[in-house]
Amino acid sequence: MKKRINLLLVGGGKGAKALLEIFAGKPGVSVVGVVDKSSDAPGVILAKQLRIPVSDNYDEYLNDASIDLIANVTGKRDVSEDILKRKTTKAELIGGE
Fold first, then answer.
1. What is the pTM (predicted TM-score) of this model?
2. Tell me, what's the pLDDT at 91?
């Protein structure tokens, strides 16, 4: 049996929306949350429609041992640097520039 990957999206813009459209309802990937400071970002709106948890702060997710992959789709290197310092060792981080 294949393991399900738990994915956190940091950034709720067009990139997050595209990833949600790809992964929503697909076996093997579960989007566990979308984080963005803007409640009207396209990815945040779609996440709410899909009943995926939304937050304006990723801190609450960084110690969650169930998260396998964090995708920084903000385009901000400093966000990646902060996440790398504080995430669990299990979680992999992609994106950031």
1. 0.94
2. 96
